[in-house]
């Protein structure tokens, strides 16, 4: 299911990947969604749009899940 975006600075189609900021606290990982990525029409790259820019941790790109809950803190991914 594609998401419609009314902001003119964003592509009108659903992202190919979601960008997650991952921080590690002991054995637990915390995932916060920070943006998304769209494949270029020529298939040779991606546009990454971040809503925030973390200064620590790592950014992970993952395929969006249709049935994923809308929470910002999702632990247990690696």
UniProtKB/TrEMBL annotation:
The lineage of its organism: Bacteria, Pseudomonadati, Pseudomonadota, Alphaproteobacteria, Rhodobacterales. It comes from the Bacteria. This is Uncharacterized protein. It comes from Roseivivax marinus.
